[in-house]
Amino acid sequence: MSRRRAVSVVGIGDDGCVSLTSRAMSAITNAQVLVGGERHLEFFPQFHGRRIVLKNGIASALDQVVELAEEQNVCILASGDPLFFGVGGLVIKKVGAEHVEVIPQPSSVQLAFARAGLKWDDAAFLSLHGRPIGGFLTRLKRLSKVAVLTDEQNAPAQIAAHMIEHGDRGWNAWVCESLGGVDERVRAFSLDELAAADDIRPLNVLLLTRIEPGWRPPPAIPFLHEDAFAKRMPKKGLITKREVRLLSLAALQIRPDSVLWDIGAGSGSVAIEAACLAPEGRVYAIEVDPEGVEICRDNVRAHAVDNVQVVAGKAPEALAGLETPDAVFVGGSKGSMDDIISVALERLRLGGRLVVNAVTLENAGEAYHVIRRHGLVPEVTLLQVSRSEPLAHYLRYEALNPIQIFSVTKPEPVEGPS
Fold first, then answer.
1. What are the structural domains, with CATH classification, of the chain?
2. Which of 182, 300, 321, 414 is most buried, most CB within 10 Å of its CB?
3. Residues in domain Tetrapyrrole methylase (predicted)?
């Protein structure tokens, strides 16, 4: 016989008891233990049972909840819908779904859209609450209507300034503060106005909607021409051509949350397009040339991809402090091909991908021999691309430099016989 549902998680708004249903009030009244933040507990001065304040993390409090729920009814108070970026999921994971009853209120996001008069069945939701802002703009690229959960570090004014810095200005904004409370306030802003605002309360939801009529998300597969990037001159710029870039990105097998190293990033074209394919991941663009570093940073800002970190330094030394990659792209080696490939294969996650682009016969030979020395057989593609170019009233073909693309997977360890 299954145990009773001894834990209730009750959603509550800034208006406290006023909007609670009879079912929610019953769960609170029947509890011997009431758990919540100080703000939530203050709504119930008449409660005479045990109180547990949630602060400085909730792991220890949940351990107490599990122990107390063996013999007592426990009620946990949470903001809005406890299963929407709330504590509800953690409680269920800790206690077990069969022992937990969740009684939600309208979420802060639902209230925000209602107060702003905006339909929200086509909206996306992003949380910057307790999370870094890096990658926020990259995720925005495919969205037209967004609700953003903020915190003191990633407050609406700071978010707007971050968007403006990267040239992503095509948005209307609403800031919805203290939703459901006596001090509720909803205001519309331009991004410039929002970046300058200094009177926004910490309890807020930020809504963003695109201004541009007829806006469409970018193509699912990036294929930007080299002219879309600033690059070093002469020789038409040191940049991976788009046809090569496309096959190299495919060979890297990038996932939405991948961590990628782009070694010898140059203008940053591979790093930028990889970042768009991994909006929840991170890309490290390693470049040794000072001019190239600045150009790469300019391109990152111009393309509004904020999950790319440009690392100034020479590989493999510059790789030492970087997080473990899921994929490594080598577009330039500055004479250190052997060491770069060796470090990349050592640091890659198991099952991770290494892709090396080689223009010269010497680099191709070295890449092949280093990979083979590590006991691996690369897949090699010789790519020869010719593009149409005008000739008077006609079109002719102009050949680009042939590129050899080496790709290999770091193998999983082979288990021996038991």
1. 7-105 (3.40.1010.10), 109-210 (3.30.950.10), 226-409 (3.40.50.150)
2. 300
3. 7-195
